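Report of the visiting student (M.T.), summer placement. My assignment was to run the structure pipeline on a short list of targets and document each run. The first record concerns Phosphatidylinositol phosphate synthase.
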Amino acid sequence: MFSGLRSTMQAVFTPLAKALMRLGVTPDAVTVAGTVVVTALALGLLPTGHLFLGAALIGFFALFDSLDGVLARLSGRSGPWGAFLDSTLDRVSDGAVFAGITLWFVLHPQVPHQQWGVAASLACLVLGGVVPYARARAESVGADAHVGIAERTDRLVIALVPLGFVQLGLPVVVLVVVLTLLAAASLVTVAQRIGTVRRQLAPGAADPTGDATGDAAGEASRGA
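After the run finished, the structure tokens were exported:
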């Protein structure tokens, strides 16, 4: 849904990436710093009820997700290591966001639909880890699972927008319903990826990637 924003942000970040490169900042440093900041914001602000500030700041720093990739390409450091580090740390920051939402529900039992909210946010936390795992595991066996209705950016935006506005008066039930639908969309995405890989790997099916080694190398860049 929001994947088209990536190319726009890459163009916007090019001047900043060039400045960081002149300062000697590495893509790995940007990746690690972004993860630390988002994780700290998610676990520090969301459970304590600073929902609007937390959602706004997390959303702001999430926009910088493409910066390390732009810096890596400009500095000639794109490669499998950067892709691995970026993807792994994305799981940390995503998990922290949904853990923070879950903790807010747990620590505020007086909010309406609290138990439903805990269950929905936990489902988003678990399934949010399965969605990228299914794609990565598919690529490891020579298949392509780049399908689905709930990719990473979509999940974050859909969760953070109603979360932030709850503090401004949005009924909590809206957030809970959104989280429930998001969990359902993530489950559908997992099913879509399983079905896609099953068809590709069925006996007699054509090679889904053509040259699995070449495609894997092509995907091995930050932000892929």
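The chain has a mean pLDDT of 87. DSSP finds nine helices and no strands in the chain. I thank the supervising group for their guidance throughout the placement.
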